[in-house]
Amino acid sequence: MNSISRTVAALACVFGMAWSGAAAAAPVQVNIGIVTAPAFVHTLSAEKFKEALDKALPGEYDVVIHNSGALGSETQVLQQLQLGTVQMCVCTTGPVEAFVPEIKAIEMPFLFSSYEQTDKVLDGPIGQDLLKRFGKAGLVGMHFEDNGFRNLTNSKRAIREPADVKGMKIRTMESPTHLAIWRDIGANPTPMAWPITTQLQQGVLDGQENPISVISAAKLNEVGQKYLTLTRHVYSALVFVGSKAFFDKLPPADQQAFMAAAAQASTFGRNYVRSNEAKQLAALEAAGMQVVTNPDLAAFRAKTEPVYASLTGDTKKIVDEIRKSEK
């Protein structure tokens, strides 16, 4: 081999090594599946997670947020997490019940009285135990955050007591517990993945139930939902969930960074929901939504007692512990 050939070969080797090093250093893509649009707290908190992770592990991970149901319903995204084809999601806890049955404990009607109580429970031993239970489903429970307390909207009439809901077709999450709640109240509950704008516009559904933050961000007052009743019947947590197949391959230090980023993002999400709730409610009312602020909650509670009677095993124990936390 002559000197020119040796030089070319050496340069090729150098460039080859550089290319190989660059390829090895390429950031790992982390896909986050979210069913709601960018204006919702789900996406806003996912963006905070991305910022926190980029700061902790600069250039190592490329967080891509897929909102507006681009990766499917929450149930479908959770299934993809089990397979490892999606790495994370921010979802409501209702659909998680199909994967982690004990999560229904925090979905029970009129169980929580305040955000102070939800923080005490979800950040304490009860919440941490629930997050650990995600593992048996091939998931990683990372951190709870707020969606808010759920309230009822509809296109038909003002709702003040359970009798007013009788026969109404009310959209619920894909959750057996939520279906049971609304059956007991007397509605015709219809489980349906988000979004539901078209179904509300076309009158396929009479109403739905969601926190103020969701009702506001989705502008449900503009799709025929004329009436809002502040039932606050279920506290609706959001949860950062990871794929166990993905997490198990991460170095321990990186796992800790992911968890810390989720905790930071969850704190942001809670503050966002709570600080904006009153303003969002006032804006909905100013836009023409008729708001019932004092429904007969005692009557609604009485109607939903059978949901508690059906509890067994660990779920019943968790609910009993949550009830003790309020005392």
From TrEMBL:
One of its GO terms (molecular function) is carbohydrate binding. GO terms for cellular component: outer membrane-bounded periplasmic space. The keyword Signal applies. InterPro entries: DctP_fam, TRAP_DctP, TRAP_DctP_sf. It comes from the Bacteria. One of its GO terms (biological process) is transmembrane transport. Pfam families: DctP. Keywords: Signal. Residues 1-25 form the signal peptide. This is DctP family TRAP transporter solute-binding subunit. It comes from Rhodoferax sediminis.
